[in-house]
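Run log, item B.
One chain of 373 residues. Sequence copied directly from the ordering sheet:
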Amino acid sequence: MEALKLGPIEVWPPVVLAPMAGITNAAYRTLCREQGGGLFVSEMITTRALVERNRKTFTMIRFEPGERPRSIQLYGVDPVTVGRAARMIAREDLADHIDLNFGCPVPKVTRRGGGSALPYKRNLLRAILREAVAGAGALPVTMKMRKGIDDDHLTYLDAGRIAVEEGVAAVALHGRTAVQHYGGVADWEAIARLKEAVTEIPVLGNGDIWSAEDALAMMRRTGCDGVVVGRGCLGRPWLFRDLAAAMEGRAERARPTLGEVAAAMARHAELLVECFGSEPHAIADFRKHVGWYLKGFEAGGDIRRELATATTLDGLRAGLAALDPAVPWPQAAEGPRGRSNPRDRVHLPEGWLDDPYETPALSGDAELATSGG
């Protein structure tokens, strides 16, 4: 297995932490990076907010000392603004790598023509990629996308070829359509078809990687050059340790006891306090992780409630201390987390599907003034 090459950057193992709004802040990236190597991408950053130097946005692109390569994911719908943001990142040394978001399926993004809706407009996609690559200069630009809007409006093969023609360094495909959201089963065969069609640059696969074995199976089945892990690492930062071991041919896998899980939870919360500079904010943010960490373990409802309602580090530690540290890793802890049902439809701008080659003039609210997804 070879390192993932993104322009001048080599990534080993060929594993990428997917950008996840409200998740992949500096604290969580540090936690995952402590487990194993890879490329760890920031939360989604809105290009308009970046070029306008929005205060919240600048706190979100903070990287820890020694965090290399520094990776920012940008969301934008206006080629000029995307180009300005990429140029700003390169000139001000804000990051080492830029990823572009064309995969977000949430209605507030797609109804404005962004995220997974945008690749349907081929010429708009091309214009954005061209401006981003030109603005980034020597920095590698990659893109993450879905198969398309739905099975009747697939875009990934056209988008992959456009990416090659515009100088993008790699493409990542989530094997679902926008209408699937995060439901159903990821289509790994689509990843294989993209790899067959796009041979000039790396192709990364994303979707239903819950274990190191899933990652190896995807790479064998599709021929992809690396994997992107999203929901599979929720409450499981040690998955990156497993992925490193698997890709180096080693058999050991992390199967932490409940005590070891509790220690990881405490470490995560402490990193959030350092990241946010506010203990109440950090502990409130951590609450959403509790259920993911404890999935499959028999922990009493009273303890779970205490952990999910803690307001201080000491309160959280008290709840964690009530867990039995000797409880072994249960089989029920394996498998999916954070699943979501498919949607009935994708919310799109009026007339969006009329002409795939039209370059629409999107309204000003298509690119939000703040970041975070």
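Observations after the first pass:
- The mean pLDDT is 94.
- Residues 27 and 240 are 15 Å apart (CA to CA).
Flagged for discussion on Thursday.
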